Amino acid sequence: MMVDDERTPPGESGLSATGDPKLWHEFRQLVTDVKREKWRAFNDWVVGRGCEPLPEHCFHNPSHYLHIYGYPLELDYQDIRPLGRN
Question: Which residues span the domain enclosing 51?
Answer without folding.
Answer: 19-55
